[in-house]
Amino acid sequence: MKAEDVKKIAVIGAGDMGHGIAASCLMGGYEVVLRDIDRKFVDKGVARIKDSFDKFKEKGKMTPAAYAETLSRLTSGVDLQAAVQSADFIVEAVPEKLELKKSVFADLDKFAPPQAVLASNTSNISISDIASATSRPEKVIGYHFFNPAILMKLVEVIKGKKTSDESIAIGCDIARKINKIPVVVKKDSPGFIFNRVNEPTGALLSKILEAGRPAPEEFDAAMKPVMPMAPFELIDYVGIDVAVHGLEYFAAVLSGDYKPSEALMDYMKKGNLGKKTGKGFYDWSLGRPKIDLSKATKEYDVTHLIALQVNEATKLLEEDVANSPKEIDLAMVNGSGSPAGPFALAQSIGYPVLLKKLEELHKRFPLDIFKPTKSMMEGSIKI
Prior knowledge:
By secondary structure, the protein is an alpha/beta fold.
């Protein structure tokens, strides 16, 4: 099968990610089936798709005729077999639990046409593990969209141990057709590209809390002038529980160095999870916190964070997870809206400067994950 043979896409899960993926596929011209386990979830997902399209129509980005035609290609339901039995490409977007995903994929394998590609919108879980629940691991790919899926451009297309090149090519072609930017992850590796490159920053913040200085606001005040949301502020916004679960996952599958500190866990124990509970590192009860830039620490600056990103990005090349420095930069820019990726920044700032910053961090927190790689020390990687 080739991408041009794909006419119908089924999206399994109508929640935050699923409804956005379905909307994107509709806008790409596909016939789409949206399915969830309960009609109320399905109806909510359909309503959110319509709400997105209403906004596009109001802004003149979608004509009334295009609005009606696009929605005419959407069907929905709760019967999994009915949803996938004539689908050519299926995207699973259920909660991030391995056993749940394996159960869904076993059913997809049973009900979907033999030629159908089965894609998982997982942000971390091993594609090879998910594919093991099927009799067609060569047709199982990772298909990691970013939130909000209707707006964010990046789609990580992940190859499991047995995934065929044909399945990856189909995934990439469909991503382009729905106006996304696909980046291939060559090896089924923890965190894929985007989350892997960012995770050492989470480990650093956890260690800073453990050290007791600088305070979150002092650290953020040093970073805020060059980023829309400073690191501790961003964790508060997303949820401290989400950050902890990410660190725990990386600690289990990549390195024990990622284990969240007791100082970070203390926020969890007290139920202070950030914006969602009204309090975390900051008080959110009156809206977005105001960060006092006059409190900026002199101990850290943004080049420390860039050094961590570049170092981790070099590991992805050394481990043959990513195709090239350019592909990694493409992923990092389109997954976050950053103006430049780690390797472009490294060329601009200079590897010697970043190496010095990384060595400062490793001296302060002697963790293996903060050790400079061979590529980092040589400073030879160019875009």
